[in-house]
Amino acid sequence: MGHMGPNIELILLGVLVCIVAYSLLTKAISKTILTLPIIFVAIGYVCAPVTHSLGTTEELRGSARLLAEITLVLVLFSDASHVRFSRLKTTFAIPFRMLVIGMPATIALGTLFVFYLSPESGLALSLLTAAVLTPTDAALGQTVVSSADVPERLSQSINVESGLNDGLVLPFVLLGAILA
Questions:
Q1: Where are the alpha helices (H) located in 1-84, listed in sequence order?
Q2: Domain for residue 17, yes or no?
Q3: C-alpha dihedral, 69 to 75 to 81 to 85, nearest 10°
Q4: Long-range contacts made by residues 26-30, C-beta under 8 angstroms, separation at least 24?
Q5: Alpha carbon distance 71, 130 (integer Å)
Q6: Is 65 inside any structural domain?
Q7: Res 122: pLDDT
Q8: Rg for the chain, CA atoms, rounded
Q9: CA distance 121 to 66
Q10: CA pair distance 78, 68, nearest whole angstrom
Q11: Is position 1 within any domain?
């Protein structure tokens, strides 16, 4: 009898177990420098050697895409859960400036810098590189952002900017990819 393909149920069960474990330990983890992305990367690294037993490389590609999409949704929307929209009404000026002035300026300067470093790659690839590198993810610095020493209006601003920048940078990424 031939190989039955990747066991998607086993992969999804593993992801679910990791999410439940993280949820149960959130308070303890929040007191450390560990964040959700760091923990999931470590789990992926530890689990990588046994993935070959789940199927061939070709069979696992579809599962890897599904797993990447689930992970992306969890990471991107975890920031949105920390935003207090009632308080945002009074502190919208900072994230507004970060998104409307800072992000396009960073993309423009990043494009010029990448083009300066590698003019043979062209402006389109320079734009794509800058657009991909521009958005920040507050989840990577969540320990700092959630610190009591950081004023709430600043931590809210960073969370809002981090939650919205991925969607707002998408047109720049697509333009760079199409032109490249």
A1: 8-24, 26-30, 36-47, 57-80
A2: yes
A3: -90
A4: 30/143, 30/146
A5: 23
A6: yes
A7: 93
A8: 20
A9: 32
A10: 15
A11: no
* Dihedral sign from CA coordinates of 129, 168, 158, 38: negative
Distances (CA, A) of 98 to 7, 101, 154, 161: 44, 6, 12, 7
Domain that holds residue 72: 8-80
Chain segment 10-69, per-residue pLDDT in tens: 777 877 887 788 778 877 877 787 777 777 788 878 877 777 676 677 776 776 776 666
Residue indicated by tokens 């009898």: 1
* Total domains, the chain: 2
Half-sphere exposure of 77 (CA within 13 A, CB side): 6
Is the overall model pTM greater than 0.70, yes or no? Answer: no
Give the Cα separation of 70 and 68 in Å (integer). Answer: 5
The angle, 0 to 180 degrees and rounded to 10, between the axes of the packed helices 36-47 and 57-80 is 170
Q: 147 and 126: one domain? A: yes
Euclidean distance between CA atoms 138 and 77, whole angstroms? 11
Q: What is the DSSP string of 96-140?
A: HHIIIIIHHHHHHHHHHHHHHH-GGGHHHHHHHHHHHHS---GGG
